[in-house]
Amino acid sequence: MEEINAKSSIQNQIGKLDKFDETFFKRWKGKLLFFLTNMKLANVLTENKHEEKAEETFDETAKRLKWSEDDFMCKGHILNALLNILYDVYAAKFADGTTRQLWKDLDNKYKSEDAGHKKFRVSQLFEYKIVNNKSVMAQVHELQFIMNQLISEGRNIDETFQVSTIISKLPMTWKDCRNELKQTKDAITMQELIEYLQIEENSAIWVIWN
User: Fold this and answer.
1) Digit-coded pLDDT (tens) for 30-86
2) What is the per-residue pLDDT across 109-134, written as a single tens digit (0 to 9) for each?
3) d(CA 175, CA 37)
4) So where are the chain's domains?
5) Which residue has the higher pLDDT, 209 or 140?
């Protein structure tokens, strides 16, 4: 009874996972694998199909049927963790396939795409330029968003690097502020930098309108 309740609880938690939408595959895969392992279904992710033998013992039959049941349940959980549009594609593609085949197909497709996304975001970060004809603070927040995405994907970006990156990208019209900030970049926190830039931008707006 306790085992049934435990499995039911895990199934409810799987249902609360964010549906995979073709982004952050590594994170989604890790969370799903954790639950499948707890449900004692993860073995079918790596095992080949247990084929029926012409003559098999009672134990062999029991193991084959148990594997088929686990494979069916595991594949269902993986498919249900996909967005509907992906569910339709993969449910049809692997209707007669095994969980191992489905898992391997997803891994081959999206692991490489994850790497491509990371390279794109790194390039996006280093090529980003803060311009004068837009709010500096709005652009700083865009930079923070890019860096937070990289951090969520496993990149080690410490606060000092984040602060230095933003300071280095301030436009030439902010030259005095940039030079002043460079003297303190190793000591200033991100929150202090944001507050400083917000005050400077508000002051510049006040000057323009007065």
Assistant:
1) 999 999 999 999 999 998 888 888 888 899 899 999 999 999 999 999 999 999 999
2) 887 766 666 667 788 888 899 998 88
3) 55
4) 2-113, 128-209
5) 140
169 in Cβ contact with 125 (< 8 Å)? no
Residue with tokens 């079918």: 44
- Rg of the chain in Å (alpha carbons): 26
Encoding tokens for residue 28?
């989604």
